[in-house]
Specification:
It contains nine helices and no strands. The protein has 234 residues and is mostly helical. Helix 2 runs parallel beside helix 8. The longest helix has 31 residues. The relative contact order is 0.11. The mean pLDDT is 87. The chain binds protoporphyrin IX containing FE. The site of protoporphyrin IX containing FE has 19 residues, from helix 2, helix 4, helix 5, helix 6 and helix 7.
């Protein structure tokens, strides 16, 4: 019990919490992207995939995953906020001269990109899960919701912007997580830079490709079949 409390109280403990929860959220982002990329295979596979996710453990699996994700996101935000406040308290006068070095730039970017990403997730849930801000939401028809949702250019533009910010957030996140895990020697800088760039690029390209493919007409809904009455000879 004391060890757990120590983890929450100490600076290094909160950095570890931030790194571990960041890794969990990152795992979700990758799995979610791979699942969503099935949209390129047509309506069957992605709708079936959505249906299967909802049926895991007779429907309780998705709630366990949602609970885990929510807890990871809450702990990630809490540790980031408390470390930021602690850093500020340690320098009560603030920076007299702002130091625009790499670490201050990265941490400032992490804060505002994190806040915008949180707003994106709320919008995203209303858009694709609850459907309240979707122009024609059909429960269970993930493919239809996907295509119709991304056909609205301003919505696709918002997703693209959010994914670029996610890339920036992941880049700095992976960079500082590798530092927390001990790869802080300048000798490893090239390795950390390469790993962070690769991770961010894969997520940004994979996710952005989907709204772009819808807007470009590369993926679309099958044209509605003519009604039987219309094809019958008069
Ligand atoms: C272009 C990128 C993305 C696309 C196309 C996309 C697509 C979708 C779709 C279609 C659903 C509904 C699935 C269903 O009803 O079965 C969904 C749910 C969800 N997405 Fe995304 N997503 C994207 C990016 C993200 C990102 C970056 C995050 C988080 C950082 C995220 C978090 C979620 C969450 C938490 C859910 C709800 C899962 C649930 O509880 O049912 N998504 N997404």
């Amino acid at each position: 019990m004391n060890a757990v409390l120590g983890l929450f109280r100490s600076t290094i403990g909160r950095k570890i919490i931030m790194a571990v929860t960041g890794l969990m959220l990152f795992g979700f982002v990758i799995a979610h992207m791979i699942g969503n990329l099935q949209v390129y295979l047509g309506p069957g596979p992605i709708n079936e995939y959505g249906e299967n996710l909802r049926l895991v453990l007779h429907g309780t699996g998705i709630w366990i995953a949602r609970g885990g994700l929510l807890a990871a996101a809450a702990l990630h935000i809490w540790s980031a906020t408390s470390l930021t406040l602690q850093n500020r308290a340690a320098r009560p006068q603030g920076y007299r001269k702002q130091q625009w070095n790499e670490s201050t730039y990265a941490s400032r970017t992490m804060r505002w990109s994190g806040v915008i990403l949180l707003a994106f997730i709320v919008y995203h849930l209303l858009h694709f899960t609850i459907g309240s801000v979707h122009p024609d939401f059909v429960p269970g028809d993930v493919y239809h919701n996907f295509i119709v949702g991304f056909k609205v250019p301003i919505v696709s533009a918002f997703y693209i912007l959010a994914m670029l910010l996610l890339g920036l957030h992941l880049y700095h996140g992976v960079w500082s997580m590798l530092q927390t895990l001990g790869l802080s020697h300048p000798r490893y800088n090239a390795l950390r830079h390469g790993a962070a760039t690769l991770v961010a690029a894969v997520v940004v390209i994979g996710n952005i490709s989907m709204p772009v493919a819808v807007l470009a007409g590369i993926i679309d809904e099958a044209p509605a079949r003519p009604q039987a009455a219309q094809v019958l000879p008069r």
